[in-house]
Amino acid sequence: MLSRRFLSKLLSPNGAKNFKRSLAIGSKIPELTKDRYPVRRGEFAILNKEHLQFFTDLLGTQRVVTDPAECESYNIDWIRSVRGYSTCILKPKTTEEVSKILSFCNDHRIAVCPQGGNTGLVGGSVPVFDEVVLNTALMNQIYDINDTSGVLICQAGCVLENLDTALAERGLMMPLDLGAKGSCHLGGNVSTNAGGLRLLRYGNLHGSVLGLEAVKADGQIVDLLSTLKKDNTGFHLKHLFIGSEGALGIVTKIAIQCPAKPKAVNLAFLGLNSFENILKVLTQAKRDLGEVLASCEMIDESTLEVCTDNLKLKSPISNFPFYMLIETHGSNNEHDQEKLNGFLEDVMGNGLVLDGTVTNEPSKMKNIWDLRERITEGFIQDGYVFKYDVSLPIENFYSLVPEMRQRLANDEEVVRISGYGHLGDGNVHFQVSCRQFSQNILNKIEPFVYEFTSKLRGSISAEHGIGFRKPKYVHYSKSAESIVIMKQLKEMFDPNGILNPYKVIPN
Amino acid sequence: MARVLVGVKRVIDYAVKIRVKPDKSGVVTDGVKHSMNPFDEIAVEEAVRMKEKKIASEVIAVSCGPAQSQEVLRTALAMGVDKGIHVEVSGPEYETLQPIHVSKILAKIAQNEKIDVIIVGKQAIDDDCNQTAQMTAGVLDWPQGTFASKIEKGDKDITITREVDGGLEVIKCKLPAVLSADLRLNEPRYATLPNIMKAKKKPIQKLTPKDLGVDVSPRIKIISVEDPPTRQAGQIVPDVDNLISKLKEAGHC
Ligand SMILES: Cc1cc2nc3c(=O)[nH]c(=O)nc-3n(C[C@H](O)[C@H](O)[C@H](O)COP(=O)(O)OP(=O)(O)OC[C@H]3O[C@@H](n4cnc5c(N)ncnc54)[C@H](O)[C@@H]3O)c2cc1C
Ligand SMILES: Cc1cc2nc3c(=O)[nH]c(=O)nc-3n(C[C@H](O)[C@H](O)[C@H](O)COP(=O)(O)OP(=O)(O)OC[C@H]3O[C@@H](n4cnc5c(N)ncnc54)[C@H](O)[C@@H]3O)c2cc1C
């Protein structure tokens, strides 16, 4: 069926693909992190011949990348905001190899940057200086999918979308979904406690990850790979590795609880006039759609333009100040459609929603989701993007955007100030894009954004983590006591500080 | 103003992975998401634009198939078509329904409805036949303009820009005529909520091939449906020299 394949390319040129590599190449290369930011290299060893010899003896020459051109894409993050200058990328296949690498690095004080799909948005996944990159791309084995319990066991380097495809064959689905699915690794998702597009329905990874295996900085393998839904034996150590961004250890295997793949999926894309109406529609969606509501996202007009103008995607409706995406998952399409149609007729009837479309055709749903999932990619074309990921009380969800528009009203360097995000979870992605990096703009945004968020008792990092960009701002969301405990844990798990130095933990 | 007929086929959605039935008698369709054949969507869009430009007075969509075909008719109605006709063909009869049958059905309806222009997709993405427009023109003895990437209606004739190998061909033909839509003819719209709601009240007429005097007895027998051969796993070679020697070994250079 040639035409089917041809069509899926032509009608949807934006299909899931690995755009990571192509992004780093051929477009502007960011300044070296060490030059752009005031940061000093730690007392770590400089890589020498003996070190490299050890790595090649262990992995062979193929899995030790030293060619500078090839190293480059591992040194630059997805949104091209930071750049390290590592000259050594390691690609282990097994936990034992990870263990031997770490034990050697720990003994020789070699700093290590754990890396999955390198789609992280806070500069955590690439070296700051010359840290050795430990990339999990070849740790991509699926060990087991249990049809009855829905438990998937796999290696940390499995690409999220590949897992979803494998699960679909068995009538199951990953509990998380995000725009980076074609590139990000499950290990990276777990290490950042990624949220994504269906968290509203399926909860976060602290709930769905049943167990994991990790390697500590000294090479010790910690087996927490329980596959049990209930396991109250002792402390729940797995949670320390979920969301700790490679600071405490390297996650090597994961057991995750997967829900049944919904038989009925419907998606509505709506146009609205005001943020107040968005809140009303959200409330009504929760009430009227109840148990079938799976996603509730919002996009403002300026954000949608990065898709329609920069990426040339087509919007199903004309322009409105705000848009919402509402997806339902259920087991009976007639039932879901009846609910959804009733809801839509209501919100159209009472004037909350001005226009929209609704579909259950997979191809159309995919094209509509592209308008949400490809936003991050679209922003890159503006130039440089200052990206923030905050949780705010729902009434204040959008308040950062008007506030910042006022603050930066006279700055001509700014291309766009906009907000979109996981409305149902109270998590807004706020960004200011400029033609290029600007210290002046940065000074006007930070720490203002964090102070603003903190005053509203929000979180300065809802789902992307702390990485390189935010350690000094952690205190806006965490008490002094909890920061002390974080430091003590770091000291205990990684006394030499070789894992992801300069990141996550405040100085 | 012209009366326009469009054909809309319900096919497995192009984003869905196709599975062959274990007994190789066909592909699995139960519980599989379907949608309107993408080329038919383009045909509908063109017809609706003709109506919006007041070139067309009425647009009628026809779908031949099982009861669920009404879903694609509803989509067509929500896109702006005025009336739907569902020609019910189901079960084993539908499995062997071919362009030869569909073209006779379309021809008959075109005559009954006094149609001036028939637009269908250039092919359906399930059987890839690319025959319906041509056969319908044959049955009616009307001129045909296939693979249209541009349609301009004149008073008594219609000008069609066709995508042909190596370029474009512009032809003019008399009305009534049969046209088939190519990918670049237009970009179909999404059905919007107000129109989806309005579409619920638009009429869908139900007919059978018998009502139209069309014999749909099978002209083919399906012997076996097979998966395409699976692509052999690739091999990673360490360098160019190695690549060349491997290619030589395999007799490729
Ligand atoms: C287009 C796009 C959309 C996104 N959407 C969302 C979203 O909706 N929700 C959301 O939460 N995030 C989102 N993100 C950011 C998100 O954090 C990442 O996409 C993803 O979770 C990171 O996975 P990764 O494999 O790319 O990890 P990387 O980027 O490689 O690494 C992320 C961090 O985890 C560490 N790490 C990676 N693997 C391991 C491991 N095995 N063990 C220990 N540490 C490890 C790294 O050192 C780094 O600190 C998005 C990113 C993009 C580019
Ligand atoms: C009839 C019955 C039915 C039950 N059914 C279930 C069931 O379905 N599922 C289930 O999981 N359990 C069940 N349990 C056991 C369950 O653990 C307890 O009922 C409940 O969770 C304990 O609450 P509690 O306030 O009584 O705690 P306690 O019994 O007082 O304490 C339990 C433990 O927690 C500690 N603790 C108590 N409060 C605190 C605190 N504030 N901070 C720190 N430590 C504290 C105590 O030192 C002790 O170690 C059942 C028990 C009974 C008697």
UniProtKB/TrEMBL annotation, chain A:
GO cellular component terms attached to this protein's record: mitochondrion; peroxisome
UniProt entry keywords in alphabetical sequence: FAD, Flavoprotein, Oxidoreductase, Peroxisome
Cofactor needs: FAD
InterPro entries recorded: FAD-bd_oxidored_4_C, FAD-bd_PCMH, FAD-bd_PCMH-like_sf, FAD-bd_PCMH_sub1, FAD-bd_PCMH_sub2, FAD-linked_Oxase-like_C, FAD-oxidored/transferase_4, Oxid_FAD_bind_N
Occurrences of domain FAD-binding PCMH-type (ranges): 82-261
Catalytic reaction equation(s): (R)-malate + A = oxaloacetate + AH2
Gene3D superfamilies reported in the protein's UniProt record: 3.30.465.10, 3.30.70.2190, 3.30.70.2740, Uridine Diphospho-n-acetylenolpyruvylglucosamine Reductase, domain 2, Vanillyl-alcohol Oxidase, Chain A, domain 4
EC code(s) of this entry: 1.1.99.39
Subunit structure comment from the entry: Homodimer.
Family, as annotated: Belongs to the FAD-binding oxidoreductase/transferase type 4 family.
Record's function text: Catalyzes the oxidation of D-2-hydroxyglutarate (D-2-HG) to alpha-ketoglutarate. Also catalyzes the oxidation of other D-2-hydroxyacids, such as D-malate (D-MAL) and D-lactate (D-LAC). Exhibits high activities towards D-2-HG and D-MAL but a very weak activity towards D-LAC.
Protein name: D-2-hydroxyglutarate dehydrogenase, mitochondrial
Source organism (scientific name): Ceutorhynchus assimilis (cabbage seed weevil)
Automatic annotation (TrEMBL), chain B:
Coiled coil: none
CDD domains noted in UniProt: ETF_beta (cd01714)
InterPro entries: ET-Flavoprotein_bsu_CS (IPR000049), ETF_a/b_N (IPR014730), ETF_b (IPR012255), ETF_beta_N (IPR033948), Rossmann-like_a/b/a_fold (IPR014729)
GO CC annotation: mitochondrial matrix
Keywords noted in UniProt: Electron transport, Mitochondrion, Transport
Keyword Cell division in record: no
Every Electron transfer flavoprotein alpha/beta-subunit N-terminal domain range: 24-216
Protein's cellular compartments: Mitochondrion matrix
Keyword Mitochondrion part of the UniProt annotation: yes
Molecular-function GO term, any one: electron transfer activity
Main location group: mitochondrion
Family the entry assigns: Belongs to the ETF beta-subunit/FixA family.
Job of this protein: The electron transfer flavoprotein serves as a specific electron acceptor for several dehydrogenases, including five acyl-CoA dehydrogenases, glutaryl-CoA and sarcosine dehydrogenase. It transfers the electrons to the main mitochondrial respiratory chain via ETF-ubiquinone oxidoreductase (ETF dehydrogenase).
Quaternary structure, from the entry: Heterodimer of an alpha and a beta subunit.
Protein name, as recorded: Electron transfer flavoprotein subunit beta
Natural source organism: Ceutorhynchus assimilis
Phylogenetic classification of the source organism: Eukaryota, Metazoa, Ecdysozoa, Arthropoda, Hexapoda
